[in-house]
Write a structure and sequence with these properties.
- The structure holds two protein chains of two kinds.
- Chain A is α/β, with parallel strands linked by helices.
- Chain A is globular, with a radius of gyration of 25 Å.
- About 0% of the residues of chain A have low confidence.
- Chain B is mainly alpha-helical.
- Chain B has one domain: MetI-like fold (Orthogonal Bundle), CATH 1.10.3720.
- Chain B has 13 helices and no strands.
- In chain B, helix 2 packs across helix 13 and helix 3 packs parallel to helix 7.
- The termini of chain B are far apart.
- The model of chain B has no long low-confidence stretch (mean pLDDT about 90).
- The chains are: A alpha/beta, B mainly alpha.
- At the A-B interface, helix 3, helix 4 and helix 19 of A face loops of B.
Chain lengths: ~425, ~300
């Protein structure tokens, strides 16, 4: 009795399974997997693009994996690779690309349709400059730059003109001092109740220092080929000292108090903040009532404008390359999500600027009060060539901590950082050239 | 061969026991052995090939340890500090508390529960609560300091105070376990010894020194070995309590296991990370053997 029932269940299961494979075999669907880390607005925008893409290409199905939080994203990729699973198209931070190329995880973008001429002609300069070892390895939908955020209510409260943000580095210092409030000792970071400006190297300020402040002080962060650290110069030290002074000398803020520099600004507890366009979305979501403005980064002592540009970029993996049908589908998909139209959809939903120069220079975007300053910045933006973004960032975070916690001289701290970062860069290239 | 019913039962028992053993071998023993193998390769999980490099990872490890300053060196130094500070403080406190708990009768269960509760609570949850307690200005500890007009302390935000701040939580959380073991040990000591000591007019200190302490030796050895191992493997409280789980500020709280994690899953140097775990394994093995041989002399 029992046995016959078991047999019946088994028979049904077999039938179902074979039906499933019949359905699968009926059409020549190619299924590719696309992975990005979980960031609400990006996930929604990509879902829209995938829907459009699948409508245009009914023989391709894109599986969108966006469940992995940012902090675990690379770990999950590393865990999936040895198991032989994972994405065919993956979105990575541009600074991670060399490490993924080094591991042989990505394959170069095919000449057709991603020829060098096409990329140079149509994409923002920072994307065009991303050629590495003779190839382009990834291509973005959107790019970001840094700009200055200021809180108009705090400016007004401190007796400053709420409509004129600091235009120079000196004005930034003055405004930061004027807007800071204390509860007691004005020389103690811990007694700050409202921050003027908090240097936050762990957030965007290591980029601001690297690509903006040093240049504005007349120096250069790296040699032209990106293989030699040059920020431990007189100019670099002047720039680093300027940044550290907010915490050590002017005592206008710290990333250690009021839930960190970024949250403090979003919560209306900090007057001035340097951040990317992606922060617009955070503010809109978490504190829509915040009365703030966005301006281009202040000019430096030499009167020059610079900003840091960065982007999340899509690459094709070794896994896709192993199967011609999937590779073809992956290339089609990549082409689709990097058009000017995709960039426009992206800016409207995510707030990041289209990677295609024409779409980014759109009148509507330039005239937009919040996006305009970011878009204007694209023309003078620099994207650092990182060999190991997190390790290189850590080097500058540590240098800064050495100043504010260990009382180290900024020039010495920078010398130490330069030596450590040079070692990282040298190790990377030594492995490549063996 | 015809098996008796009793033998059949035994065979079946082995068959059922084999399942967890096979499972254990596959998810614990095999990866542990695999770590030895990985440590001899330039093992990048993203790559298609993992070239053999001999002892290069170990060379790099000892090279890092020899430097004036390096993450690996900080990790080993801090781990040793955690053990040298944490184990004695935790065991002394646990012993003192269990002696007191052994005395009281009124509401003794409630007290025991209070001390044991942290041990059965999630480390991550406790670590996050402590992280808030340590906050500047609004954290409970700084609020108390302000109330009694003492200067505020940076706690987790200072290179000097961060390690003791993390340690305090770990000592407190793990203490419940040590207390239970000590209490069980105390219950094993026959009452007659104490009665005899009382008759002889021994002082409380002498009773502790010559009866309680020697007879607690088995519990003490057990705890010493176990707690040393647990401090050597410290990971979760540090990753939960430090900024972005980095073991900062300035690597002042990073441990060997956290460094292993960072190398393996953030920099993808699985080979180097494996060599760290192999060295940690050797360290744990060595310390345990020494502890057992030194402290487990039989006391009469």
């Amino acid at each position: 009795m029992l046995r016959s029932r078991l047999l019946a269940i088994l028979a049904v299961l077999i039938l179902l399974l074979s039906l499933g494979s019949l359905v699968g075999a009926q059409d020549d669907m190619v299924e590719i997997e696309y992975w990005q880390y979980n960031f609400g607005a990006r996930v929604d925008a990509m879902n829209m693009l995938i829907e459009q893409f699948e409508a245009e290409n009914p023989d391709i199905k894109v599986v969108h994996n966006s469940d992995i939080p940012y902090a675990d994203f690379r770990t999950e990729l590393a865990a999936s690779a040895p198991a032989g699973v994972g994405p065919d198209v993956v979105t990575l931070f541009y600074g991670w690309i060399p490490a993924f190329v080094d591991a042989g995880y990505l394959v170069p973008l095919p000449e057709d349709p991603f020829s060098e001429d096409f990329i140079l002609e149509t994409f923002s300069p920072m994307v065009a400059n991303s050629k590495f070892e003779g190839s382009y390895w990834a291509i973005p939908t959107a790019v970001r730059s840094l700009a200055l955020f200021w809180n108009k209510d705090i400016f007004a409260d401190a007796g400053l003109d709420p409509e004129s943000p600091p235009a120079t580095l000196d004005e930034l210092v003055e405004a930061a001092i004027a807007t800071t409030q204390y509860d007691g000792d004005m020389s103690d970071i811990l007694s700050i109740t409202r921050m003027g400006h908090a240097p936050a190297l762990a957030a965007q300020d290591h980029h601001w220092f690297r690509e903006v402040l040093i240049r504005q002080y007349g120096g250069a962060p790296y040699s032209d080929d990106g293989r030699t650290v040059t920020y431990n110069s007189e100019e670099g030290c002047a720039a680093f000292s300027w940044l550290a002074a907010f915490e050590t000398e002017h005592v206008t803020g710290s990333n250690d108090i009021l839930d960190g520099a970024t949250n403090a600004f979003v919560n209306g507890e900090s007057a001035i903040h340097v951040d990317g366009s992606f922060r617009l979305g955070t503010i809109a979501r978490n504190n829509p009532a915040l009365n703030y403005g966005v301006a281009e980064l202040p000019v430096g002592p030499n009167g020059e404008r610079h900003t840091f540009g960065s982007y999340w970029t899509h690459g094709i993996t070794r896994r896709a390359n192993d199967d011609p049908a999937r590779l073809e589908a992956a290339v089609k998909f990549l082409q689709f999500i990097t058009t000017p139209a995709a960039g426009t959809l992206w800016v409207n939903n995510v707030g990041e600027l289209p990677a295609q120069a024409t779409a980014a220079a759109d009148e509507m975007i330039l005239a937009h009060p919040d996006l305009g300053p970011f878009s204007a910045g694209l023309a003078y933006s620099h994207a650092t060539f990182f060999v190991d973004e997190s390790a290189q960032r850590q080097v500058l975070i540590d240098a800064f901590d050495n100043i504010r916690m260990g009382g180290m001289d900024p020039c010495d701290a920078l010398d130490e950082a330069a030596a450590l970062e040079q070692e990282l860069i040298d190790n990377f290239w030594a492995d490549r050239e063996m | 061969m015809k098996l008796t019913l009793a033998k059949k039962k035994v065979v079946w028992a082995y068959i059922f026991l084999a399942i967890p053993i096979v499972f254990f071998a596959y998810i614990r023993v095999y990866p542990a052995l695999f770590a030895f193998q990985m440590s001899l390769h330039d093992y990048n999980p993203l790559a298609a090939e993992q070239p053999f490099v001999g002892f290069e990872n170990y060379e790099r490890l000892f090279d890092q340890l020899g430097k004036r300053k390096s993450q690996t060196k900080s990790a080993f130094q801090n781990t040793i500090n955690y053990v040298l500070l944490g184990v004695p403080i935790q065991l002394c406190l646990a012993l003192a508390i269990s002696l007191m708990l052994n005395e009281i009768r009124f509401m003794s269960t409630l007290y025991r529960v209070m001390f044991f509760l942290p041990f059965v609570t999630s480390t991550i949850a406790i670590a996050w609560v402590f992280r808030m307690l340590y906050q500047p200005r609004f954290g409970l500890f700084n609020v108390i300091l302000q109330l009694v007009s003492l200067p505020q302390q940076p706690f987790l935000r200072s290179t000097q105070q961060a390690l003791p701040s993390v340690l305090a939580l770990v000592i407190w959380q793990g203490m419940g376990f040590a207390i239970i073991i000590f209490l069980a040990g105390l219950k094993q000591i026959p009452r007659t010894y104490y009665e005899a000591a009382e008759v002889d007019g021994a002082s409380r200190w002498h009773t502790f020194r010559y009866i309680t302490f020697p007879l607690l030796n088995p519990s003490l050895v057990y705890l010493l070995v176990l707690q040393t191992i647990s401090f050597l493997r410290m990971f979760a409280p540090v990753i939960a309590m430090t900024e972005q789980g980095r073991g900062g500020p300035l690597d002042s709280t990073v441990t060997v296991v956290l460094q292993t994690y960072r190398e393996a899953f953030q920099s993808f140097n699985m080979g180097y990370a494996s060599s760290l775990t192999v060295v940690l394994f050797a360290l744990i093995l060595g310390v345990t053997i020494i502890q057992l041989s030194v402290t487990s002399r039989r006391i009469n």
